[in-house]
Write a structure and sequence with these properties.
single chain; mainly alpha; three-stranded antiparallel sheet
Length: 771
Amino acid sequence: MEKHMTKLLATLLAAIMLLPATVQAAPADGWTDEAEQAYKTVTELVVQRVTESKDYLAAATQEENAKAVYALWISGADVPEGFYNEYLQALADWLDLAVKRGKTAYIPGVIRTVAAMGLDVTDFAGHDLMDALRKPELVEADEDRLDMLIDLDAAGDVGKTDEFNALREQLLTEALARQQSSGEFRYTSKWPAELKQKGVDDEPDRFDYILLTAKSVQALAPYQSRKDVSAAIDKALNYLSEQQLPSGGFVKYGDEDVEEDAAVLEMLAALGISLADERFTKDDRTVLDGMMGWYQSTYAEQARTPGQGFYRELIGWSYSTGKYFPVGWAITSWRTMDDPDDPDEHVKERIYINETAFPGLAQLRVMLQAAPVVGGSITAPSGGIGGVSAELDYKQLITEKSGELAEELSVKKLIEEYSYLLDGGSHYITSSQISTFSSQLLAREKMNIKMTEEEQAKLREIMAVIVGAGGETYLGRASYTYAAGAVRAMQYLGMDPGDINGLDYIVPLTNTSKAAPTSTQNFNSYLYDIASIDPEVWRSRGVDGDMLAEQFITRVLADQTLDGGFDDFYGYSVATAKEGQTVIGQGSVPETISALSALALYRDKENVAAAIEAGLTYLSSVQLADGSFECWGDTPNGAVTLSMLSLMDKLDISIDDERFVKNGNTVADAMRTFYVDGVGFISDFEVDAPLDDLIRENSVMGNSSTVSALTYLQAAENGTFGPDGKGSSVFEVVGAALTETPLGAILLAVIVAGILAFAMVRRYRRIKREQ
């Protein structure tokens, strides 16, 4: 272990300026032997975590690591030989990958960490870290924008140019505008996903904004010579003093949380306020006392997630309006674990969050203890994995991936996979397995995979057996058993779904009890399947296909939330809510896109058209700053972004539609950022794993999604994404454009049929015209 030291005296002074507490250090009171031991133990745990996760792709993990390394550095932590150099090189590699993806990456805390180490923030392994601050519109979260303000101050002179002074004033104005008359600071940008899920954005008075308030004061601390800033800080300190619990800590939802405690400690250190200040001492307990109440000194090996150090209890909270429980936050779910200090007892399950707690503890230690001694050095990292890749050759990539896809979706492979069903034995098959087989067939249909008559006959035989397996299970209950996509797959094979082995598989589609308000079915699939049956077939059965579809449409629309989005369980929750109970519904991006895709089949209906417009308005409102869309948690997701491109194609929406252009970025621009040269499209970069692990674990998008994404990008580049006046899909437009080249034969062999249900949309419109 080596005691790291700063490189030059100037570097030390820069680090000290980041923490006014070291300039106006309060008496070294309140720091206990227990706190010192916790600091040393958690230092080792944090070093271990950074070492393990330094190559992870997730931006959130990179932020966590940057702030942890900063805290280690300024507090003079004992770290292993080469620890800082290895971290800095991993950071440089991560930034290289971001550039190759075309991303402008702002990682909160990186600038202050690199600056504190005495390195050049304008040339860090070839990266100008200040570039991310030149595009502040891409940083939306309030807490991240506060970090920008802190990083601007940490950058020193390079952060004091005219352009950055203008940004500083903008960020200061925003920060002050978040303060309420009570002194607390509230969110003004998109609410954090966790608070949205708990309905806090609808009822903001339910929540105590300790974390945001403490961080706001920390960011404002360097500017307290300004009267408006000073007044805002005083109000915030009064508010926080009033919120402090008798334990010394601070609340989140219904109980104290160490993250809030740590944020307040960082704030106190930034202001140079003594730990024993009477405003932040309750019943002789300080904030540190409160925080130490959530420290576990022994290692809990028997826990589900073994660990040690600072923790929070893994419990669920919800807000009661007083109908059935007292007004306020209440625990709704929890699990238990053995008590680390007494194996015969149980405590609520713990999750260890040392990386979150450590910065507060470390900065308090800097304030109360002597500053690090000058000396030692680090090595500036080199460029990691190379520079910016060339523009994508979409045509060449489509050629390569189309060939791979044709091989992957070969009918021969599918027959081999299911040939065991033809052994004459007895097999139990569930409706879910039938749906899986059907979806595999439909994937080949949408990609226009060719098959011989012999292959088609073999697949028909398999289909007849698979739906008949365990006859009493499926066939005996045909009147109410439903397998999503089965009737479409049967038609693809040239089979009559109304008469297979003498049994009728269209019957389940007419079971409208499945569309009841309290039902939880795959209603979108019902809409696709109903639309696939020719109106003449419905009439021959005495069924009004349009009215049948209307009942399922009504059920789908019941899942549309007040914000215009869709939540698959919203309709059920409303239908089953007790008298006086309020149902909080928040739209989900994936579920909204899925619902709108199914509703596109019926958009000639007035109520459906209105619902689609509301849904599109919702999607526009939640589109991320880089043009992408999230799955869960406000982080970009490639699969969801691709599904949005599919929806836009299906609804004839231009790629340049102003509703879906954010900061000059279209959805296609966003899709491009999920591509890594030599690897492919990666759906989710917000994962705790390095790039190599994603490749090994098959987390790269499959060939079908890749071909779809490349075709959309080709269309966007050529200006052919959007309505062409003929109702053509993007696939047909691109395919037609490529028929003049050698690529045409390959493209037409694989992707002429479009994706998802586009062909069905057009077919349904034709049928409606004929009616």
